[in-house]
DNA sequence: CCTTCGATCTACT
DNA sequence: GTAGATCGAAGGA
C-alpha cells in the first residue's frame, strides 16, 4: 500500500495543505471500504491563528492531539457533525489541515446509504458531509493516517490549485481574511 | 450543574 | 444568498 510517510507530513502546514490535494482518503469499516480524492483543504496555524482551536496554545482534551507529531487525525464534533483534520507541524506546535471536501472514488453505494438519496456532488462537498459519507467518527480521534482502518495514500497530481479565504470563520477577526484555503481548480466537488 | 457557542447543514427566497 | 435548527464540548459558578 502506498501510504504517505512521515517526510510527507513533515512539510510546513501551508505546503502540506496543497500537497494533500489529489491524495486518496480511505476509511474501512465492517460495511465496506469508502474512499475519495481530497479536493479541498484549509490550513489552521496554531498559536497565531485566531480561527484555530489551538489559538494561543489553547490546550484541551480535544486539541491535545494537535500538540503531538504530524500525521494523526484530529476529529472534532460540532453542530451535530464530525469534522476531520490532518495534524501537521512538529510535536509541540499545534497546527492542522482541515479536509473540507473529497471527490467520491469507491464505496459510492455505501455513501448513498449513509447520506440518503442525494445528487452525487452533494455526498461529500462539505466537511460534515464527507465524514458521514466515509464513516469517519469521533472514534478515529488520534488515529495515525498510515494504518487501517483510516489512512491516506498517494493519488494524482492536480492540474492547477486555487487559493482563497477560508470559510465559516466570520467571527475570527483578522484571521478571517487569511488566504489559507486550497482547492483543485475546476472541481465540481468544492463546498462552494 | 448550567450557560454559551460554534472550522455546519438544510431548506427556502 | 440567508435564516434557523441543533447538541456536544468548553468554561465558569
Please describe the structure with a list of short key phrases separated by commas or semicolons.
single chain; Putative 3-methyladenine DNA glycosylase; DNA-binding; glycosidase; alpha+beta; EC 3.2.2.-; 192 residues; 3-methyladenine DNA Glycosylase, Chain A; hydrolase activity, acting on glycosyl bonds
Task: Provide a short characterization of the protein structure.
This protein is α+β, with helices and mostly antiparallel strands. 14% of the residues lie in helices and 31% in strands. Strands 1, 2, 3, 4, 5, 6, 7, 8 and 9 form a nine-stranded antiparallel β-sheet that branches.
Describe the structure.
- Keywords: DNA damage, DNA repair, Glycosidase, Hydrolase.
- GO terms for molecular function: hydrolase activity, acting on glycosyl bonds.
- The structure is a single chain.
- The protein is an alpha+beta fold and 192 residues long.
- The protein has one domain: Methylpurine-DNA glycosylase (MPG) (3-methyladenine DNA Glycosylase, Chain A), CATH 3.10.300.
- It is 14% helix and 31% strand.
- The chain has 4 helices and 9 strands, in the order ααβββββααββββ.
- The chain has helices at residues 6-9, 13-19, 108-115, 127-134; strands at residues 24-29, 32-45, 73-78, 81-88, 95-106, 146-147, 150-153, 161-164, 181-184.
- Helix 3 (108-115) packs across helix 4 (127-134).
- It is globular and about 40 Å long.
- The model has no long low-confidence stretch (mean pLDDT 95).
- The protein binds a DNA duplex (13 and 13 nucleotides) through residues 42, 44, 51-53, 60-62, 76-81, 83, 85, 98, 100, 126-129, 166-169, 171-172.
Amino acid at each position: 500500500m502506498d501510504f504517505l510517510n512521515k517526510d510527507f507530513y513533515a512539510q510546513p502546514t501551508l505546503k502540506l495543505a496543497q500537497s494533500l490535494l489529489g491524495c486518496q482518503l480511505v476509511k474501512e469499516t465492517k460495511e465496506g471500504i469508502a474512499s475519495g480524492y481530497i479536493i479541498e483543504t484549509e490550513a489552521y496555524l496554531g498559536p497565531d491563528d485566531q480561527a484555530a482551536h489551538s489559538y494561543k496554545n489553547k490546550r484541551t482534551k480535544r486539541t491535545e492531539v494537535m500538540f503531538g507529531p504530524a500525521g494523526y487525525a484530529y476529529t472534532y464534533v460540532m453542530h451535530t457533525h464530525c469534522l476531520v483534520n490532518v495534524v501537521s507541524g512538529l510535536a509541540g506546535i499545534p497546527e492542522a489541515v482541515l479536509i473540507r471536501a473529497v471527490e467520491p472514488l469507491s464505496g459510492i453505494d455505501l455513501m448513498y446509504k449513509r447520506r440518503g438519496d442525494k445528487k452525487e456532488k452533494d455526498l461529500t462537498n462539505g466537511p460534515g458531509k464527507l465524514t458521514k459519507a466515509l464513516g469517519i467518527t469521533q472514534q478515529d480521534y488520534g488515529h495515525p493516517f498510515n494504518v487501517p482502518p483510516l489512512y491516506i495514500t498517494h493519488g494524482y497530481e492536480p492540474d492547477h490549485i486555487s487559493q482563497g479565504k477560508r470559510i465559516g470563520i466570520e467571527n475570527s477577526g483578522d484571521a478571517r481574511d487569511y488566504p489559507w484555503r486550497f482547492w483543485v481548480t475546476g472541481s465540481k466537488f468544492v463546498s462552494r
